[in-house]
Amino acid sequence: MLIILQGLANVWKLVLQKCHIHIIEPATFSHLPKLRELHMEDNDLVQFSITGFLLPGALPGTQPPLQMLGLHGNPLHCNKDICWIR
Questions:
Q1: DSSP 3-state of 3
Q2: How far is CA 16 from CA 5, 23, 47, 58, 62, in A?
Q3: If DSSP codes are grouped into helix, strand and coil, which group holds residue 1?
Q4: pTM (two decimals)
Q5: β partners of residue 38
Q6: Every domain of the chain and the residues it spans
Q7: 39-49 as b/e: b if 16+ CB within 10 A
Q8: Residues 23-76: pLDDT tens digits?
Q9: Among 27, 50, 68, 78, which is most buried by a count of CB atoms within 10 Å?
Q10: In which order are the strands placed within the sheet that holds 13-15?
Q11: Cα separation of 38 and 69, whole Å?
C-alpha cells in the first residue's frame, strides 16, 4: 500500500473501508502529512502498532495528529500495543 500512497501529500481524508486490510506496516501513512481523518472500518485488522500511523514530525510513543480514526467492524485483539487509542 505504501507505493500507492506516495504522491498524495495533500490528502486530509482517506477512506479504506471494506478493503480486507489485515495489516498496517510501520510508516504506512508517512507520506500523508495532512491526513486528519482515516476510515478503516470493516476490514480484517486484528492488531497494529502506532508506528503504522506515524505521520511526518510525529514521535514514536506519541499520539498521531489524526482527528478521526475509524476502526469499528474490525476483529481487533485489545492489548498494550493499541492502548494509545482513546
A1: helix
A2: 12, 13, 16, 22, 23
A3: coil
A4: 0.75
A5: 14, 69
A6: 1-86
A7: bbebbebeebe
A8: 888 878 878 888 899 999 999 998 877 777 666 655 555 545 778 989 999 998
A9: 50
A10: 13-15, 37-39, 68-70
A11: 5
For residue 69 the three cell numbers come to 480514526
Contact between 11 and 35 (Cβ < 8 Å): yes
Q: Residue 56's pLDDT is what?
A: 61
Q: Which residue has the higher pLDDT, 64 or 10?
A: 10
Q: How many CB atoms lie within 10 A of CB 9?
A: 12
